[in-house]
Amino acid sequence: MFRFAANLSMMFQEQDFLDRFTAAKQAGFDAVEFLFPYAYPAHEIVKRLEDNQLDLALFNLPPGDWEAGERGLSIYPERRGEFQATAGMAMQYAQLLKVKQLHVMAGIIRPGEDLAGMRRTYIDNLRKTAQSAAEHGFTILIEPLNPRDMPGYFLRTCSQAAQIISEVGEPNLKLQFDMYHVQITEGDVTTRLKEWASIIGHIQIAGVPGRHEPDHGELHYPWLLQTLHELGYEGYVGCEYRPLSKTEDGLKWMSGYHSAPTPAAGALNPLPGS
Question: In terms of CB atoms within 10 Å, which end of the chain has fewer, N or C?
Fold first, then answer.
């Protein structure tokens, strides 16, 4: 059975954030995810999760000044201290919210900056963060983002992410594989799923090109999710899309995934669960 997590930063926008937990449960979700929890006291989110018997799949470390266009701090040599402080805050939230996966955003490349120095800083920050996270049983995720939605973002492709993960060398650093971003940047999503299966920690989906429901656009999700099952993936599938209208009106696509075939014997590269 597929385990879908509603992304509350994009879905159920008709309601205030703290009310979206109940809306997600009523719509048939058993898990949620979101970008950032930090605008709310942790106990308020815990209450919504517990009241609705929802699991929390993941959230992101603080990105810096989001309104000013910052999309992560982990690549900037001059902001190492700030990044490590935000990582500590995120892990405090993670312990209270009982989440096991945290996404570290990289950051935006600014003109004239030292890319090699950024890469070294990124690897060092990820290694230290993964080591700290391992003490609490957390997995750290990194996600390539497409240049249309996120111009200038440092991490672009799965192969780039795989090289970073290899160099960091920590077993709890994994790839967040968003099929929407992968299709726009690289294409050939099925092949890339199989290629990087052993390092994938979390999956996200959305229709391409509009980032709407996954039954709209050029990606054929029945095929891709079948492939995911054949690969032995047991984690959550995050629904990180913008509904075309009212969220509940666009959830008919989920009805076909209430059950799914058992992964075949000898399935390729079993993946870690959440």
Answer: N
The candidate with the shortest Cα–Cα distance to 177, out of 87, 99, 69, 101, is: 101
Q: What are the structure tokens assigned to 6, written together?
A: 């509603």
What pLDDT is recorded for position 256? 78
Does the pLDDT value for residue 267 go beyond 80?
Answer: no
Q: Helix H segments across 111-157?
A: 115-134
- Find out whether 84 and 76 touch, Cβ atoms under 8 Å: no
Determine the Cα–Cα distance for residues 103 and 141; give it in Å rounded to an integer. Answer: 5
Please, what are the domains in the chain?
Answer: 4-257 (3.20.20.150)
Nearest Cα neighbor of 214 from 257, 253, 258, 256 is 253
Per-residue pLDDT, averaged over 218-245, amounts to 96
**Active-site hit among 33, 78, 143, 230:** 143
Q: Is the model's pLDDT at 273 over the cut of 50?
A: no
Work out the number of other CB atoms within 10 angstroms of the CB of residue 37.
23
Please give the pLDDT value at position 142: 98
Q: What is the DSSP string of 84-106?
A: HHHHHHHHHHHHHHT--EEE---
CA distance 163 to 155: 11
| Cβ neighbours, 10 Å, residue 97 | 16
d(Cα 6, Cα 27) in Å, to the nearest integer?
10
Q: Which residue has the tokens 């996954």?
A: 214
Quick check: is 135 catalytic? no
Selecting among 33, 213, 230, 240, the annotated active-site residue is 240
Active site residue 240: yes
Alpha carbon distances (Å) from 238 to 5, 21, 71, 164, 265: 5, 15, 20, 23, 26
